[in-house]
Amino acid sequence: MAEKFKIKKGDKVVVITGRDAGKEGEVLQVIREERRAVVSGVNLVKRHTKPSRTDQGGIVSKEAPVHISNIAMRDPKDGKPTRVGFKVLEDGRKVRVAKRSGEVIDL
């Protein structure tokens, strides 16, 4: 069963473990069924592609999905990894909040 994550497409994240630890990027896609996310410039793999009418073929670098537990949101204040919490504003909107600084992530 797919569940809700605190990380969404378009978020700026930091890789916290693995061979790409410390790298930052933007979430391009969230794969909820597999608990994974594709992050730009992170976990690059080489793919050997056949030539087609539109593509020349050869060895292409592309991003592979990273497990959601290996990435953390960037704090909007200082850019360091932070956990995410939720808060309801006075106008009734539920927004994500950086636990590290208390800064609101969603505007």
List keywords for this structure.
mainly beta; six-stranded antiparallel sheet; 107 residues; 0% helix; two-stranded antiparallel sheet; SH3 type barrels
What would you say this structure looks like, in words?
With 107 residues, this protein is mainly beta. It has a domain at 12-75: SH3 type barrels. The protein contains no helices and 10 strands. It has a 6-stranded antiparallel sheet, with no helix packed on it. The radius of gyration is 17 Å and the shape is elongated. The model has no long low-confidence stretch (mean pLDDT 92).
Outline of the structure:
By secondary structure, the protein is mostly beta strands.
Radius of gyration: 17 Å
Largest sheet: 6 strands, antiparallel
CATH topological fold name of the domain at 12-75: SH3 type barrels
The coarse silhouette is: elongated
Q: How would you write the strand order of the largest sheet?
A: 6-3-2-1-7-8
pLDDT < 50 stretches: none
Oligomer: single chain
Fraction in helix: under 10%
Strand content: 35-45%
- State the name of the first-level CATH class of the domain at 12-75: Mainly Beta
Q: How many separate helices?
A: 0
User: Structural class, please?
Assistant: mainly beta
Strand/helix succession: EEEEEEEEEE
Average residue-wise pLDDT: 92
Overall CATH architecture of the domain at 12-75: Roll
End-to-end gap: 29 Å
List the topology elements:
Layout: E1 12-15, E2 24-31, E3 36-39, E4 44-49, E5 58-63, E6 66-67, E7 71-74, E8 81-82, E9 84-88, E10 94-98
Antiparallel strand pairs: 1-2, 1-7, 2-3, 3-6, 4-5, 7-8, 9-10
